[in-house]
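Sequence of Protein NrdI (Rhizobium vallis).
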Amino acid sequence: MGLIVYYSSRSENTHRFIAKLGLRAARIPPSGADAFHIREPFVLVVPTYSGDGGKGAVPKQVIRFLNDAENRGHIRGVIAAGNSNFGETYGLAGDVISQKCQVPYLYRFELLGTEADVANVKHGMELFWTREQL
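Predicted 3D structure, token representation.
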């Protein structure tokens, strides 16, 4: 199965979700993201910041990471965390990254995710990486 690359803020919500998955993962560092390199295909898991009308939804560290052409060249899909209280901007970081990187938006979950979210993502990743290898 492929790699999950993720960013988690100080709240650690995304980190806790990734830990529940038990899959191979690499965390984008809070500082020095522009020096963090991935040299294999990955699915990105990213939290959504509320921002102003959606502006600023993607964490700056993720933007710096994806500004590296090699990193961006290995992204195969995106999963976003969010808060449904944000309304229309719930999970918006996934929409932004999907459009800019031309990859599928695979899933969105709220805050820490539920056990159903964990099961859905685990199963979805297995199917996704199986199809990706065909």
